[in-house]
């Protein structure tokens, strides 16, 4: 019962956090490890758990997504499928000890990238234009990261959109949830075929994350940008320290 409460609560608040600004897997991944799931399996199960929450979160930003360029959206979604599969395959061939060692570094990377996204955007806007090849490579790299390690995916995507020059936080959140849903779907399918997902835990957490995702989308439109950023940075740094201590 205690394990049930832990993973349900973590999944619900992860859904809320993912819809608001990302970083929900900072809660689901450690919760699964805490109840005894091995790290690589916990990462895969966490990806399954928060997967439907991205869809409900994106639904809360449909108004913003409808006015976004359709061709650009399809290109982003296509790269997300490729990146999701590549990242999942990379995770499956990573030794458990290696993955456990790099987890805190991945968490720290995601948090710092989000914390300094304004600097990244300023640097990007100082350039004459975005190289199409460089843009495609960057998006593919980020989505591969998402397929490999779902933790901090929303943070990295928001930093990416900010660096590419997007300014509307609601549009960025809508795109973040849409891309997260597509690339997570690709990686989830790969994990399920590989048989490393803890299905009972994943099912419980999927329901809680879906509810949290829709509630979070509503909250995101009401919370100040500074509050959203502070929540994500604090959670990210906190989970980084937890896993550094653990490793």
UniProtKB/TrEMBL annotation:
Keyword terms of this UniProt record: Cell membrane, Membrane, Transmembrane, Transmembrane helix, Transport
Keyword tRNA processing: no
Pfam families: TauE (PF01925)
Compartments it resides in: Cell membrane
InterPro entries: TM_pro_TauE-like, TSUP
Bilayer disposition of the protein: Multi-pass membrane protein
Top-rank taxon, per record: Bacteria
Main location: membrane
Regions that span the bilayer: 29-51, 72-93, 99-116, 137-166, 178-199, 204-220, 226-244
Family classification: Belongs to the 4-toluene sulfonate uptake permease (TSUP) (TC 2.A.102) family.
PANTHER family the record matches: MEMBRANE TRANSPORTER PROTEIN YFCA-RELATED (PTHR30269:SF0), TRANSMEMBRANE PROTEIN YFCA (PTHR30269)
Entry protein name: Probable membrane transporter protein
Native source organism of the sequence: Phaeobacter piscinae
Top-level taxonomy: Bacteria, Pseudomonadati, Pseudomonadota, Alphaproteobacteria, Rhodobacterales
């Amino acid at each position: 019962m205690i394990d049930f409460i832990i993973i349900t609560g973590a999944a619900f608040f992860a859904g809320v956090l993912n819809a608001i600004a990302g970083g929900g897997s900072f809660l689901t991944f450690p919760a699964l490890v805490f109840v005894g799931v091995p790290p690589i399996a916990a990462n895969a199960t966490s990806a399954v758990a928060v997967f439907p929450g991205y869809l409900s979160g994106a639904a809360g930003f449909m108004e913003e997504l409808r006015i976004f360029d359709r061709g650009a959206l399809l290109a982003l979604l296509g790269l997300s499928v490729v990146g999701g599969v590549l990242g999942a395959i990379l995770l499956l061939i990573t030794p458990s000890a290696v993955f456990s060692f790099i987890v805190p570094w991945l968490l720290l990377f995601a948090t710092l990238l989000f914390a300094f996204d304004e600097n990244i955007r300023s640097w990007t806007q100082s350039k004459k234009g975005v190289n199409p090849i460089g843009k495609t490579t960057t998006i593919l790299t980020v989505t591969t990261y998402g397929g490999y390690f779902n933790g901090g995916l929303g943070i990295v995507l928001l930093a990416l959109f900010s660096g590419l020059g997007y300014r509307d936080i609601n549009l960025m959140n809508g795109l973040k949830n849409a891309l997260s849903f597509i690339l997570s779907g690709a990686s989830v399918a790969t994990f399920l075929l590989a048989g490393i997902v803890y299905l009972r835990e994943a099912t419980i957490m999927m329901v809680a994350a879906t509810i949290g995702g829709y509630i979070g989308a509503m909250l995101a439109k009401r919370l100040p940008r500074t509050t959203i950023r502070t929540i994500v940075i604090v959670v990210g740094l906190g989970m980084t320290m937890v896993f550094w201590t653990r490793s």
